[in-house]
C-alpha cells in the first residue's frame, strides 16, 4: 500500500454510462456459470468473485451491450470504469479495461488519477498489466509530461504501481525512453516481490525485440544485481 491514502475519484454523471451499466448488469449475470466461476476465482487466487464467463462469451456479450452506443468522451470513460470497478465480479472489471483500451485516445492526461485508482483497487496482474501497457502507456505517449508521474510510481510502496511503471512502455518499441526503461529496471532490480521481478524481465524482453544488443549489455552490466528470474525473462528470446 502507498503511504498516503488517496480519495476515490468521483464517477462523473454520464447518461452513456447509465445505459452501459444498465445493459451490462442484465447481460452478464444472465450468462453466469457458477461452476466455472468457482474455478476462475481459485485460479485468480481469490482476488475477486467471478460470474464464470469465458473470454469469448464475455466479448460477445460486451459487443451486444455496446451496440448502437456513441463513442464516449473522457467523463463517460471515467464513469463507466469507476462504476464497473464498484461491482464485485471480476468480469465487470475486465469490461472496464477493454472499454478504456478502446477509447483511451479520447482521454487526457487528467485521466491518470482514475487509472491509478483502478491499478490499486482489487489489484492483480490480470487487470494491472493491460491497464499499464494499453491505458497508462497510451496516456504517457500522448503527454510526455506524465513521465514525471511514472518517476514517482517506480518508487512507490505499492508494488502494482511499480509494475505499471515498468510495463507502461511495453508497446513503445522504437519510441521507448531507454534511459527510463533501464533506469527503472536497475532501481527495482532487487525488489523482493515476484511480480516486480517478473515485470523487470518482461519489460527488458519486450524491448529486446527492438534492440537486443542494448538489453544484453544492460543485463551483463547489472547481472549481479538482477534477480535470476529477471535475467531469464530478459534474455529468453535473445540469448546471453
Describe what you observe in this structure.
The structure is a single chain. With 240 residues, the protein is mainly alpha-helical. Helices cover 63% and strands 0% of the residues. The chain is built from 13 helices and no strands. The relative contact order is 0.09.
**Global morphology:** globular
Class from secondary-structure proportions? mainly alpha
Gap between N and C termini, in Å? 36 Å
| Mean residue pLDDT | 96
- What is the count of helical runs? 13
Order of helices and strands: HHHHHHHHHHHHH
Rg, Å, rounded: 19 Å
Q: Portion of residues in helices?
A: 55-70%
Please describe the biggest sheet, giving its number of strands, its sense, and whether it closes into a barrel: none
Quick recap:
The protein is an all-alpha fold and 240 residues long. 63% of the residues lie in helices and 0% in strands.
Task: Annotate the secondary structure layout.
Layout: H1 15-30, H2 34-43, H3 55-66, H4 74-86, H5 90-103, H6 112-120, H7 125-142, H8 147-153, H9 159-167, H10 178-187, H11 194-208, H12 212-222, H13 228-235
Search tags:
single chain; 240 residues; mainly alpha; 13 helices; globular
Amino acid at each position: 500500500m502507498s503511504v498516503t491514502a488517496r480519495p476515490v475519484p468521483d464517477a462523473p454523471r454520464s447518461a452513456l454510462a447509465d445505459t452501459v451499466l444498465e445493459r451490462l448488469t442484465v447481460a452478464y449475470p444472465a450468462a453466469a456459470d457458477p461452476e466455472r466461476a468457482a474455478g476462475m476465482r481459485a485460479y485468480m487466487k481469490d482476488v475477486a468473485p467471478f460470474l464464470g464467463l469465458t473470454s469469448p462469451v464475455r466479448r460477445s456479450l460486451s459487443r451486444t451491450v455496446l451496440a448502437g452506443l456513441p463513442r464516449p468522451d473522457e467523463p463517460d470513460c471515467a464513469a463507466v470504469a469507476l462504476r464497473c470497478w464498484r461491482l464485485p465480479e471480476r468480469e465487470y472489471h475486465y469490461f472496464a479495461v477493454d472499454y478504456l483500451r478502446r477509447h483511451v485516445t479520447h482521454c487526457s492526461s487528467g485521466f491518470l488519477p482514475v487509472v491509478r485508482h483502478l491499478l490499486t483497487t482489487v489489484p492483480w496482474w490480470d487487470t494491472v498489466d493491460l491497464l499499464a501497457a494499453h491505458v497508462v502507456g497510451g496516456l504517457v505517449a500522448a503527454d510526455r509530461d506524465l513521465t514525471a508521474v511514472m518517476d514517482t510510481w517506480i518508487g512507490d510502496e505499492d508494488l502494482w504501481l511499480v509494475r505499471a511503471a515498468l510495463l507502461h512502455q511495453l508497446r513503445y518499441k522504437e519510441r521507448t525512453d531507454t534511459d527510463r526503461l533501464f533506469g527503472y529496471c536497475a532501481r527495482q532490480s532487487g525488489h523482493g516481490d515476484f511480480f516486480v521481478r517478473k515485470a523487470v524481465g518482461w519489460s527488458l524482453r519486450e524491448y529486446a525485440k527492438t534492440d537486443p544488443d542494448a538489453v544484453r549489455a544492460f543485463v551483463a552490466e547489472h547481472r549481479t544485481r538482477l534477480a535470476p528470474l529477471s535475467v531469464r525473462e530478459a534474455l529468453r528470446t535473445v540469448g546471453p
